[in-house]
Specification:
Order of helices and strands: HEHEHHHHHHHHHHHHEHEHEEHE
Shape: globular
Number of helices: 17
Structural class: alpha/beta
Number of strands: 7
Distance between the termini: 36 Å
Radius of gyration: 20 Å
C-alpha cells in the first residue's frame, strides 16, 4: 500500500444501499471504511452519533478530511467547483481557504500533492482516473456523444434495455469493455492486493454479465455511477454526500460538533482489538474481505462480534472472492436474505457480485 497514492477518490458502493442496510439513527456508533470518503459522509449526514472512518492508507483519510472541511469553508456552489463537478480555475484558491482547517498531517500531505487539486479531487484516485479515461477517451471512439446522451436519458426500463441491445452493444463496445475489465487491465486501476485471493477465472465475461443484469433492472437515467462511467463526470444527478441538502447537514455538523467524525489510519484488525466489548452499533465494511486470507477474515469477524452491541448491523460486498463470516460464529449472526436480495436488485453499482447485511445477536 503506497501512502502517496489515493486509490479511490470516490466511493463505488451505493450509499442508498448502505443507509438502507444499516438504518442509521442518532445513537449509532459506526465503523466505516473510508475509501473515497463519500459513504462515511453519507452515514454522518444521516444522523449517526459518531463515525469512525478507517483506512489502512492515510491518503484516503486525508482526502476525506479535505472533503469534509470543504463543507465548512466553501459555499455549496464553490464546493461543487472545488470537488471537480463544475469547471474551475480556482481550486488552488479554494484549497488555500480550506487549508487552515485541516489537521497538520492532512495539510502537509496535500501540500506535497498539490498537483492533484486543479483537476478536482473527486477525479484524482487511481480507479477513478481509469474509469474517467475510459469514459472520456475510449467510449467516444465507440459511440457518438449524442448516442451516449440518448442512452443516459432513456425513461422506461423497456426502452433502456432495447437501446442497449440495438444501439449500444456493438462489437467494438464488447471488445473494448471486455479489454477494460480483464484482470490484467484492472490491476492498473486498483492496488494489486485486491486480487491476491482471486482465482484465475477470467473476469471480463463476468463483468459483462453483471453490467447487463444491471442495465436490465436498474434505471440508468438517475444512476450517477453510470453517468460518471459513461461521461467522466456528473451532470444532473450527484452522489448522496454532494447533494445540497446533505452538504448543508455536513456543514452544520462540521461547524457545531467536529468530533462526530474521526479518521483512523490503521489496519482494521489492529484497530478493532483496541475497541471495548459491545461498543459499535453499525459497520460499513465495503469489500475489505476481498483481499484477505480466510484466517485473517475469521479474525476480523471474531472482533466484529466482540465489539458489536447486540442488534448491531453490518453491510459489505463481495466482488470476485466469496467471503463471509465463519460458520462457528453463525449463532451470533443473523442474515436478512430478503433484504439482501432487495438491496442487490436496487444496487446502482453493477460490478459487485453480492451485498450482505447481517445483524449481530448476543
Amino acid at each position: 500500500m503506497h501512502e502517496d497514492v489515493i486509490y479511490y477518490s470516490q466511493c463505488w458502493e451505493d450509499p442508498l444501499v448502505v443507509l438502507r442496510a444499516l438504518s442509521i439513527n442518532s445513537n449509532d456508533e459506526v465503523l466505516s471504511i473510508t475509501s473515497g470518503g463519500d459513504n462515511s459522509l453519507a452515514i454522518l449526514s444521516a444522523g449517526a452519533s459518531r463515525v469512525t472512518s478507517i483506512d489502512i492508507n492515510p491518503a484516503q483519510n486525508y482526502l476525506l478530511e479535505l472533503k469534509y472541511k470543504a463543507t465548512q469553508t466553501l459555499s455549496y456552489d464553490e464546493y461543487l467547483e472545488f470537488l471537480g463537478i463544475r469547471d474551475s480555475g480556482r481550486r488552488i484558491y479554494f484549497f488555500e481557504k480550506i487549508r487552515p482547517e485541516l489537521s497538520k498531517q492532512a495539510r502537509d500531505w496535500w501540500l506535497d500533492h498539490k498537483e492533484l487539486i486543479p483537476v478536482g479531487i473527486i477525479h484524482c484516485g487511481r480507479f477513478d482516473k481509469y474509469v474517467r479515461f475510459f469514459a472520456r477517451y475510449v467510449i467516444p471512439l465507440i459511440h457518438r456523444r449524442q448516442t451516449i446522451q440518448n442512452f443516459l436519458a432513456t425513461v422506461s426500463m423497456e426502452d433502456q434495455w432495447r437501446f442497449y441491445n440495438e444501439a449500444w452493444n456493438s462489437r467494438l463496445w464488447k471488445f473494448m469493455f471486455g479489454f477494460a475489465t480483464k484482470k490484467q487491465s484492472l490491476t492498473r486501476a486498483r492496488h494489486g492486493g485486491m486480487f491476491a485471493q482471486a482465482d484465475n477465472t477470467p473476469t471480463s465475461g463476468e463483468y459483462v454479465r453483471r453490467m447487463e443484469k444491471n442495465i436490465a433492472s436498474v434505471p440508468i437515467r438517475d444512476n450517477y455511477f453510470m453517468h460518471y462511467s459513461l461521461n467522466g463526470n456528473y451532470l444532473s444527478y450527484l452522489p448522496f454526500s454532494m447533494q445540497e441538502e446533505n452538504y448543508k447537514k455536513l456543514r452544520e455538523i462540521c461547524i457545531k460538533d467536529n468530533s462526530r467524525l474521526v479518521c483512523v489510519s490503521e489496519n482494521i484488525l489492529t484497530y478493532l482489538r483496541t475497541v471495548s466489548d459491545n461498543t459499535l452499533t453499525k459497520f460499513n465494511l465495503s469489500d475489505i474481505f476481498e483481499a484477505l486470507s480466510l484466517e485473517k477474515n475469521n479474525k476480523i469477524w471474531d472482533e466484529i462480534v466482540r465489539t458489536a452491541k447486540s442488534g448491531a448491523r453490518v453491510v459489505y460486498w463481495n466482488n470476485l472472492v466469496k467471503r463471509t463470516y465463519p460458520e462457528y460464529l453463525s449463532k451470533y449472526i443473523k442474515s436478512d436474505e430478503i433484504l439482501q436480495d432487495e438491496l442487490r436488485k436496487q444496487d446502482r453499482v453493477y460490478f459487485y457480485d453480492k451485498v450482505y447485511t447481517h445483524t449481530i445477536i448476543k
